[in-house]
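Page 37, continued from 36.
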């Protein structure tokens, strides 16, 4: 549990503020105590209220960052099918898509510093401007390196300033509804992807790829601008300073390392899956429009699944449900995607897999809060994002290289194995959480932790399958 979850709310029953008392008015020590208690009282998450406005703002930011970015799968399929840039290889286009995600994650420390120096709203406005500039400039690209700079690097940096800032804000507004609100906001990725996959596929056919980019640019500008102005951060208590500086030694902690490996493995699978599906549709003889519909259905599944997964995980355990959903995604890839050689099975796979394939992005903030606490969330989240830079950059490149050498079967098995690895990491993390709970109970019962065994002595195969809510 985080520090937030263990705080005792200050009410009129257990604290009475009397400003007229001479000791309070005249004593600096008492004044400090009063201000500390009031600050702590103000720091209790409202679990609603303006938090729902912030949830909607983060939802819209996801629609117009990740949702817009997912349209790259449709644009990529167009470039691959029409040889728009004859000198560019499949690998070049794959790296462009990976760059947009990796740059978003790479600038995590810069975003954290910008929030401290310039404030939340100004940081969001910087990201909004960069996203518009990147998409509008991409419409004038005549060489593939223009896309590297615009669609890849500039868009990714803009997405980092908006998405990372918004993601770190939302958990501060909720406690018991933290996973549900995060899942609801994260569903914007799916709805945005659904809308923009269909819209991009249609506008490319009727208006061309250049006008498609310009439409995306202005849509993102309008929505992100409004969301940036409405989204508000909550102040932390002066008695509980937030850890802002990245500390690479955090990766030496088993629990943080497990979260990191879970993120890297599922990111390799998720990125390759969401970018490859439209092109896979073309490879089995479907039209480009059918491929864009398959990508849209995948995003529809994301929109349905993320709030549902968040709601269930608040009730049955965030680590447990995330582990189960990651494992289900691996099973779906093996059982449905591999034999899907026609339109109907592919749409079924896209819908079912969409509900579970992006579990990491919808639950990472609540899980990290449970693992390290709210105070360490910004710095640890930034560190986790840095570990995802490499996998995000090469994910689609690895998949396309496999497709080019031995067909889609090897890529499908590879993507499945990545989700299996992620599920294993969460299974071990779940065992670690039970260990921490038992150790804390032992300390409270006996007053000492000296006789409690270390984790690796404590862990047994049966401990990986304990029943309980974590």
């Amino acid at each position: 549990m985080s520090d937030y979850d263990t705080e005792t709310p200050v009410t009129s029953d257990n604290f009475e503020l009397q400003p007229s008392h001479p000791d309070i008015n005249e004593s600096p020590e008492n004044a400090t105590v009063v201000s500390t208690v009031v600050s702590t009282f103000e720091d209790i998450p409202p679990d609603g209220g303006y938090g729902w406005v912030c949830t909607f703002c983060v939802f819209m930011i996801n629609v117009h960052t990740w949702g817009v970015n997912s349209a790259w799968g449709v644009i990529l399929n167009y470039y691959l099918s029409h040889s728009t840039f004859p000198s560019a290889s499949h690998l070049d286009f794959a790296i462009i898509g990976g760059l947009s995600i990796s740059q978003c994650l790479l600038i995590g420390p810069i975003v954290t510093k910008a929030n401290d120096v310039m404030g939340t709203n100004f940081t969001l406005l910087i990201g909004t401007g960069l996203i518009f500039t990147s998409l509008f400039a991409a419409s004038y690209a005549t060489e593939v390196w223009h896309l590297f700079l615009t669609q890849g690097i500039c868009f990714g940096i803009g997405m980092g300033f908006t998405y990372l800032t918004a993601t770190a804000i939302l958990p501060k507004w909720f406690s018991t509804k933290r996973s549900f609100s995060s899942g609801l906001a994260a569903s914007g990725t799916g709805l945005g992807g659904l809308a923009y996959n269909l819209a991009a596929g249609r506008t490319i056919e009727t208006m061309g790829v250049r006008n498609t980019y310009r439409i995306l640019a202005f849509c993102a500008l309008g929505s992100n601008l409004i969301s940036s102005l409405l989204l508000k951060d909550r102040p932390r208590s002066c008695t509980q300073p937030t850890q802002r500086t990245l500390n690479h030694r955090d990766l030496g902690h088993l629990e943080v390392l497990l979260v990191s490996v879970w993120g890297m493995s599922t990111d390799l699978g998720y990125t390759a899956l969401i970018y490859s599906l439209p092109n896979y549709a073309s490879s089995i003889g479907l039209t480009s429009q059918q491929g864009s519909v398959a990508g849209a259905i995948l995003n529809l599944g994301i929109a349905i699944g993320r709030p549902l997964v968040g709601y269930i995980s608040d009730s049955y355990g965030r680590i447990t449900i995330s582990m189960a959903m990651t494992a289900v995604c691996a099973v779906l890839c093996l059982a449905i995607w591999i034999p899907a050689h026609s339109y109907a099975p592919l749409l079924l796979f896209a819908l079912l897999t969409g509900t579970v394939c992006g579990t990491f992005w919808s639950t990472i903030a609540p899980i990290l809060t449970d693992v390290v606490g709210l105070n360490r969330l910004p710095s640890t989240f930034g560190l986790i994002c840095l570990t995802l830079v490499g996998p995000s950059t090469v994910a689609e490149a690895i998949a396309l290289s496999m497709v080019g050498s031995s067909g889609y079967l090897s890529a499908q098995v590879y993507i499945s194995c990545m989700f299996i690895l992620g599920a294993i990491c969460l299974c071990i993390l779940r065992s670690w959480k039970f260990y921490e709970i038992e150790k804390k109970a032992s300390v409270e019962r006996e007053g000492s932790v000296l006789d409690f065994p270390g984790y690796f002595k404590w862990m047994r195969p049966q401990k990986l399958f304990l029943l309980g809510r974590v």
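The chain has a mean pLDDT of 80. Flag for discussion at group meeting. The CA atoms of residues 114 and 123 lie 6 Å apart.
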